[in-house]
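Let's practice the habit of predicting before peeking. Look at the sequence and jot down your guess about where helices and strands might fall. Then scroll down.
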Amino acid sequence: MTTCAGDIGVVAIGRNEGERLRACLASVIPLAAATVYVDSRSTDDSPALARGLGAVVVDLDMRMPFTAARARNAGFERLGAIAPDLAFVQFVDGDCEVDPNWLPVARAFLEANPRVVAVCGRRRERFAERSIYNLMCDLEWDTPVGEARACGGDVLMRVAALRRVGGYRDDLIAGEEPELCIRLRADGWRIWRIDAEMTLHDAAMTRFGQWWRRTTRAGFAFAEGAHLHGAPPERHWVRESRSAWIWGLGIPLLTVIGALLLSPWALLLMAIYPLQVLRLFLRFSGALKARGLRAGFLVLGKFAEAFGQAKFLARRLSGGPTRLIEYK
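Done guessing? Here is the structure:
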C-alpha cells in the first residue's frame, strides 16, 4: 500500500543530517504532491542534497533565534505557496525515515474520522541497541494507541485546521507539538495515535551528556508549558513540573538541611530514590533489562528536569532570550 497521495504535502526540517536526510526525503518525495525541506544553516551539503532529490528548500534565516517550531512554520508557509490546495501535511524530522505505508494509512484514518485533526503512529529508534540512551528514546515513544492529548514532531495533520489556529508557536524551544495540540483541541479537534509503523528515528546518542541535555530540555519544556497552559482545565505539564522540583531539588535540599540542623540520620531520606526505582521497575512490563534501565533513568532524569526548570525560571526572571538546548 504505497500509492502516491495527491493531496498530501511534506515538511521536513534538519541540519547536518547527511545520509539520514537522504533516507528521510527518499521515503516521502515519491509519495507526496510536494515536499519542502527547511535547512537551519547546515555546514554539510544538506540543501544541495535535498534539491537534488526534488525537494523545495527553504534556508531558514538564522539571524533570528532558531526553534524547530519556527522551521516547521516556515516550511508550512512555503508548502502553502507552492501547493495551495493540499488537504494534509506530514511533518517529519530530517533524522527520520517514513515507513512506506504510513502516508496512505494515516490519510485513510483522517478521511474516516472527520473530527480527528492529527494522527501519529509508532516512531521507533533505528539503532536502539547501540546505546542505553537510544533505548530510552525507543521506550519513550512506545505510547498507548488511541485518542491522545498530543502528538510528536512526526505527524500527519489537516492543513485547514493548522492554519486556523496559527501553526506552531515560533518561540518555544521544545514542547511545541503538545502546545499546538492544546489549541487544536480547544478548537474542537481530536488527536489520535494509531497502531501503525510511522518513522524510524536516529537519535545518535552515545554519551551521557547528550542524554542529560535532552532531559534538561524536557524539564525546560515542562516549565514553559505549565506557565502557558497550567491553569484549569488543561493543567498542562503541572504534574510533571512539580515532580521535577520535588525529586530533582526538594528532597535533596530537605535531606541536606535535615542532616545539618537536625541529625545525620536525615540522610536516610535519600533511600527514597532506590525505592522509587524499585517501584517503577515493578510497575513496568517487558524485558527485565529494559524495565530496569527505564526505571533508573526516569528517576535520574528528575535531576536534569529540575535543572531545566531552573533554567526556565532564570530566563523568566532575567528577561533574557531563550537559547536552544541541543543534544546533537
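How did you do? The CA atoms of residues 110 and 255 lie 52 Å apart.
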